[in-house]
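On clarity, I found the account of how folds are encoded harder to follow than it need be. Since the whole study asks how a given chain folds, the encoding of that fold should be made plain. For illustration, here is how one protein appears when written out as sequence plus structure tokens:
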Amino acid sequence: MLIERDRSFLLIVDVQERLLPAMAAPEPTLRNATILLKAAGRLGVPVLASEQYPKGLGRTVSALAKLLPLGAVFEKVSFSCLGDDGLADRIASLGRNQAVVCGIEAHVCVLQTALALANNGYEAFVVRDAVTSRAPMSVETAVARFQKSGVEVVTTEMVAFEWLTRAATDEFKDVSRLIR
């Protein structure tokens, strides 16, 4: 199954000020989440972001926060984004059945969110090069679990080019520049 821009939304999970620096290789995750966010904005794909207990872990990192649409950020204390009624209701209100998920930590909040989405009828896609955890082994274990649970594991470029569907357009030029 392909990711379709008219059926999908981007969900950025807990890429926060005090959490990101503690992750293994945080730079690729931040870079690729930024690419996804910019591509979604250019292509009209709705974007939501969660913040796990921001009082303790800080807000969404500024590199992403400045690109997020107004009203896109939801605070939560549940590990799964669907465990928070406000965010779960907002996701449902989008009327889209494909969720593209990135963020941290892969084996906790991203995992529980992706599995909950899949269990609630969404086609869930986790962007492998835009997720991380404190320990690389935790990421690999989460990826194995995604695959066994019917959650698709994809890359940033897969998402961008599946959203595009074709070359030789202004959108293609704009989005392909993000990836170079």
